[in-house]
Write a structure and sequence with these properties.
Number of strands: 5
Distance between the termini: 18 Å
CATH architecture: 3-Layer(aba) Sandwich
Largest sheet: 5 strands, parallel
Helix content: 25-40%
CATH superfamily: P-loop containing nucleotide triphosphate hydrolases
Number of domains: 1
Structural class: alpha/beta
Strand order of the largest sheet: 2-3-1-4-5
CATH topology: Rossmann fold
Oligomer: single chain
Radius of gyration: 17 Å
Order of helices and strands: EHEEHEHHHEHHH
CATH class: Alpha Beta
Strand content: 5-15%
Length: 196
Amino acid sequence: MNVFVLCTGRCGSQTFIKACSHFSNYSSAHESRMALIGPERLRYPANHIEADNRLSWLLGRLDEVYGDAAFYVHLRRDVAAVAASYARRYNFGIMQAYRDPGIIMGLPKGTDPIAVAADYCNTVDRNIELFLKDKSKQMKFWLESASQDFPVFCDRIGAEGDLAAALSEFSIRHDDTPRRKRFSLWRTPVGASGAG
């Protein structure tokens, strides 16, 4: 079974995947196919857990390929914390794509970056909720209650491995690196030649 972690970003998705790396019966990756287009963009290996906030813009295609056969996690974090994090990244990445001249056109100058970030979060979360309306295998997962939610997640997908080590990942901050620097790193998409 494939598992998709759908989220706004800036809500613990890297930490979630680090925790899943302790499973012996699933592979896992974070944003592993984001540079691909067409059918290759969603061609994940079987029994794979993928977290990628860009999937919220590909939900129609995700439904077409995986439909109700996959398990879906709606990863959430306090929206004020997510918006504050995105406001610090206002001039690059997903925020640059969302605000003027991206999804929003003609945004008045001086608009509060936190308000724009909160609008982005609301848009993505509503998209995910609508997508999940007819999915039989899903759960909402709050970063703030990871110690309670992660064991439930493990049970729901039949995960095997070191649960204690997996849970310990939630006490480590995994993404303090500015996105600009991380994009310069080489990435091999999951399922591509040389990928694990």
